[in-house]
Amino acid sequence: MRILLRPVRHGVVLNYLGQLMMLLGAGLAVPAVMGLVTTEWAMLVAHLGIGAAVADVGWLLQRWTVESAIRPVEALVVGGLIYVVASLVLAPVYQMGGLPWIDAFFEAMSSCTTTGLSMIGDTSTVPRTLLFTRALMQWYGGLGFVILTLAVLVPPGSSASRLLTTQLEKSEVVPSAVAAAKSLSHLYFAYTLITIVLLLATGVGIFDSFCYGLATVSTGGFPTHPSSLASLWWPSLLVLIPFMLVGAWPLTLYRRWRAEGMSAVFGDAQVRVLTVLALLWIAVLLVLFQTADAARGYGAMDAVFLGISLQTGTGFTTVDPATLSPLGRLVMLAPMNLGGALGSTAGAIKIYRLLVLIALVRMTIFRTVLRPNVVKPFLVGGRSLSRDEVETVAAFVIGYFVLLVLSTACFTAAGFEPLNSFFECSSALGASGFTVGLASAALPTWAKLLLTFNMWVGRIEIIPAALVLYPPVWFGRRRR
């Protein structure tokens, strides 16, 4: 297998990274406007200066290399590297906001991967421009740098459309990947704008409305207040709930929704399962808040909001997980590691893979009672899957939990409480952003880097991360 592996062409990888860096540099001009409005001149200069430098470097990379048809492995590598590049670029910007470099890098990775874990204990101590940049980068990361690039930079018919399939389900990609990217971008923007307008209508301030709107549809979850969303009243929370759900739906469902109406939504297996699971966690939390965690004073609205935020991986909460009983934190672990739909902005295992695993168990049981010559198709959501696809899902789930267990073991060996360690590592790898307090400036440097690595792997997923880190992908023998 190693002999058959075709390594990436470094020039092609650098060419597409250069295009993405040009887009990233232009994107940093947007929060510079916030620096102008708030008269935070240091943040304004940092955004404009670093944005211009990144765009220039990207332009040089794109100019010095030759654009060529990109292969699938190269598309996966580019899709993985852009999150690292973006985090390295953002780290100096966050440093200007008062964060040490390692904390700034952690915060940047959490932004780009839409995780929501933070090194900032008190958001009132940092510039408001930094808070806006965090939310905006979650919005960029949620839609995917790749999709934005397809919509803006890549000409129709380009083979770079393969980049799109690293973010979405292959079966859902329409013939024109660029047209699909533009359509998804428009819908994503529209949902964000609607969220912001509705928050303003319920009395939320302009700054908070923009930050919450950007972080909701992207299932990012960065708050602008230390207490997360506990300060918002219930109409504002109700505004966020449907858009948290929309963010956890498959991005490609939006196109079918516009063409077929609500029948496309109700007919999607992932949406149905996500809804059922969210209702299940709401019911469980309601019971917990009346029994084991009754002393905390949480009510029905807290259970509803937290249940949906958990299953969608948004990370917004009116409840402090650190105050919950061990049973309450154990309950939170299940939806944090399941996540939203495949092809959504949510992280973790994803509901589609859960359906594949359930179908695999059923198939295994049926094979013990069926005659050997009976052929039964492997169906998930009305679609027949090949053996390779099933094996890929199984490999992903195994790799996910191996990394989760190893990360938890590292924290536990360092003296951290096992349940809290598992909770924090699940939050990083599942890109959910909930915390019991371990993710803080007081965390050792190695632990911050480990959580940062988990956030990166959780965003791009296990197999692309393994490809990026596999030396023969970069230095293997080239076949003619």
Characterization of this structure:
The protein is mainly α and 480 residues long. Helix content is 64%, strand content 1%. The chain has 21 helices and 2 strands. It has helices at 10-27, 29-37, 41-64, 72-95, 101-112, 128-143, 145-152, 177-201, 206-217, 234-247, 253-260, 262-266, 269-290, 300-312, 326-338, 351-367, 387-413, 418-429, 445-460, 462-469, 471-475; strands spanning 379-380, 383-384. A two-stranded antiparallel ribbon has the order 1-2. A hairpin with a 2-residue loop joins strand 1 (379-380) and strand 2 (383-384). Helix 1 runs antiparallel to helix 3 and helix 6 packs across helix 7. The radius of gyration is 22 Å and the shape is globular. It starts with 9 loop residues before the first helix and ends in a 5-residue tail after the last helix. The model is unreliable at 148-175 (pLDDT under 50).
Question: Which terms summarize this structure?
Answer:
single chain, 480 residues, mainly alpha, two-stranded antiparallel sheet, 21 helices, 64% helix, globular
What's this model, at a glance?
This protein has helices at 10-27, 29-37, 41-64, 72-95, 101-112, 128-143, 145-152, 177-201, 206-217, 234-247, 253-260, 262-266, 269-290, 300-312, 326-338, 351-367, 387-413, 418-429, 445-460, 462-469, 471-475, and strands at residues 379-380, 383-384.
